[in-house]
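Blackboard transcription, Thursday session:
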Amino acid sequence: GAALARGLLGWARPERWLPSCSLFPLSCIHTSTTLQKTGKWERKNWIVYPPQLPGEPRRPAEVYHCRRDIKYSKDKMWYLAKLIKGMSIDQALAQLEFNDKKGAKVIKEVLLEAQDLAVRKHNVEFKSNLHIAESLTGRGRYMKRIRYHAKGRFGIMKIVRCHYFVKLVEGPPPPPEPRRTGFDQAKEYVQQLRSRTIVHTL
Amino acid sequence: LRAVLQRCCRRLQQGLGGHSPPWGPALAVQAPAFLPHAASAGSDSDAEAVPGLWDSIVWMAVPKKRRTIEVNRCRRRHPSKLIKEKRNIDVCPECGNLKQKHVLCGYCYAKVKAETRLIRMEIGKKEGGPFNAPTVETVVLYDGEKPTEKDEGKRIIERARKRPSWFVQN
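(Written on the board underneath:)
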């Protein structure tokens, strides 16, 4: 009992709560609340680029959004994330609306929130002119519980949660890459053969 | 400050000493799982006549090697397992929401369902109880509508609102 309590406290570690209030010279770092850190994905929205020079091509607007600790499996969520990767936001919303999975509803909410954010805060002109550049899932915090079996046996089950990350970029979706045909592979092979040299000679 | 934190630590420890972490009962459950084995081993020490689970394990199908993550990924990401894109999504001409081609528009269906529920409530109020349905037809009339000659013998249900555009009269 005592050892378990010590193990639990080893996880809690209140000595680490102090650094959250320490002062940093940079003003843009937000002081976090106890045990709540702004994740790396949320911080990607805070970068500010210097104004573009007149000759530079226009940098498209990017919005990073995520939802943490969704009660769903990261492997099951990955299939949905893979489905909408590279689609325009309207197409993605249409596909998710008619998908029967639990994660589809969650991702749809996240996409609508991100679209709203883009239009309000990130200087995006048309809400349909967005496409999904990146869509990822990550593992959330798992909890372990006992699953009771017959004859006094037990198993340890994991209560699984996941995070979902999405990056919307302004502009039409990029055209899909043409598939590598046999002819392309043969051409590359011949090129490799031609570029061989004899080593340690003139 | 460090001393204060250490004191808090100790107080938490004392507070949590009685509490077991969520998988604490595992310790309690382990005992009954092991005890029957110990008891049976003690009683059947002479002859292992009882064919327990341990014998049948010998000829069970069992994986020989751990499946590597590369093999697992090939199986999980095979195109047959990926979700296919649906190409049968259109726009409903009535409300502008998305709908599948072979399915009724969800928004329009919900709208009609809500109105039908209110009409049925009116019918319920008129009938007053179960098994009071009349043997004549029913006509629903909205604000400012009078029953025509065709609605002579029919039961009339009044709804106190403007006629919805999708509910065509006669």
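Lecturer's comment: Residues 103-158 of chain B form one domain.
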